[in-house]
Design brief:
Layout: H1 2-39, E1 43-45, E2 49-52, E3 57-69, E4 74-86, E5 89-96, E6 100-105, E7 108-113, E8 116-123, E9 131-139, E10 142-145, E11 150-152, E12 155-162, E13 169-180, H2 183-189, E14 198-210, E15 226-238, E16 241-251, E17 257-266, H3 268-278, H4 286-296, E18 305-313, E19 316-319, E20 322-326
Antiparallel strand pairs: 1-3, 2-3, 3-4, 4-5, 4-6, 5-8, 6-7, 7-10, 8-9, 9-12, 10-11, 12-13, 13-14, 14-15, 15-16, 16-17, 17-18, 18-19, 19-20
């Protein structure tokens, strides 16, 4: 029994020592990183940085954190920012944001309000610290201007992960639910209130191939670039209108795209009604647009649904037989 008690005491002492060493390392490394950021092109200030959670967690709290880019007049301010990690799994981190944050973009001030906002990330426990997963979730986010205009959503989820059994392919996912646009934006795109005030959902699911894996402690000399993009799902639902797309594109050495997307729009003539109501398309061109849509529709047997292919060859876009111009570069 005495030997067992001694073993327990020794083990607890060693584990406690590990925690205090780990806390010291976390605080010093974080402090060094924040000082390094502030010494560069950006400004970063905070009041306090402390780590607690003995014996099984590293809970780090930073107060009155402010990050800014003077050149672009962009900044982010949070009264409190927290990082949580289990002491026996320090390569997995959870970040918790305050209910109210301040964003400044090009000199314009916005307030970000949420019921709950948190992010998580995981890297491989290796010298290179290869990226594994990252997620950010917001419950009832609202972005409010100084004038009181507000963009609100019921929830938003964004995630990225290393695709299983790959080295440099990553899954990207974004979903926003119950999107309520600011009133001035809504009047701009729907001046006659043809659509309901709430956009039901927006989903985006894709795979990207990179020229090298993402590593926090990597030694890649050249910048990482996109080598292929596959959109598994793009879906927007607004009232009785829905738009979806799937497809793949690959950039060449100059960044010119090659590939295609299949695009489908249900109740697409309601989209045409919006375009006419906003003045984007003159009323007298409505019949011409309807005729052109009928000619490029690949599913004429499906009522009220328009399906067509957006093809891209050497950076030039075509919607069916209709040229649309130059696609954006991806490098």
């Amino acid at each position: 029994m005495r030997k067992l008690i001694a073993l327990v005491v020794i083990s607890a002492t060693l584990y406690g020592g590990y925690w205090f060493v780990g806390r010291s390392q976390i605080q010093s490394k974080l402090t060094e990183a924040l000082i390094e950021i502030n010494a560069g092109d950006y400004d970063l200030t905070y009041d306090t940085l402390s780590t607690k959670g003995f014996p099984s967690r590293f809970d780090t709290t930073i107060t009155n954190l402010e990050f800014s880019d003077p050149l672009s007049a962009t900044s982010w301010t949070a009264p409190i920012f927290q990082l949580f990690a289990l002491s026996y799994r320090p390569n997995e981190v959870i970040a918790v944001f305050p209910h109210e944050q301040t964003l400044t973009v090009a000199g314009e001030v916005f307030t970000l309000l949420t019921n709950d906002m948190r992010a998580s990330g995981k890297v491989r426990a290796s010298a290179a610290l290869a990226f594994q997963t990252a997620t950010i979730e917001m419950d009832y986010p609202r972005i409010r201007t100084e004038e009181g205009a507000e963009l609100a959503m019921a929830s938003i989820l964004a995630a990225m992960r290393l695709t299983p059994e790959t080295v440099q392919t990553y899954d990207l996912f974004l979903e926003a639910r119950s999107i309520e646009l600011p009133e001035d934006v809504r009047r701009l795109i729907d001046p006659q209130n043809l659509q309901p005030p709430i956009i039901q959902s927006l989903r985006f699911d894709s795979d990207i191939d990179l020229t090298a894996p993402i590593e926090l402690n990597g030694n890649t000399a050249s910048p990482i670039e996109l080598s292929a993009v596959s959109i598994k799902e793009f879906a927007l639902a607004w009232g009785e209108v829905s738009v979806s797309a799937i497809g793949d594109v690959t950039p060449d050495e100059m960044g010119l795209l090659n590939g295609s997307f299949s695009i489908s729009a249900r109740n697409w003539q309601q989209i045409l009604d919006l375009a006419v109501a906003t003045g984007a398309i003159p009323e007298e061109q409505r019949l011409l647009i309807v005729g052109m849509a009928s000619n490029i529709d690949e599913t004429p047997h499906v009522p009220d649904t328009l399906t067509t292919t957006l093809s891209i060859t050497d950076g030039q876009m075509m919607l069916g037989p209709i040229p649309l111009g130059v696609a954006p570069l991806l490098r």
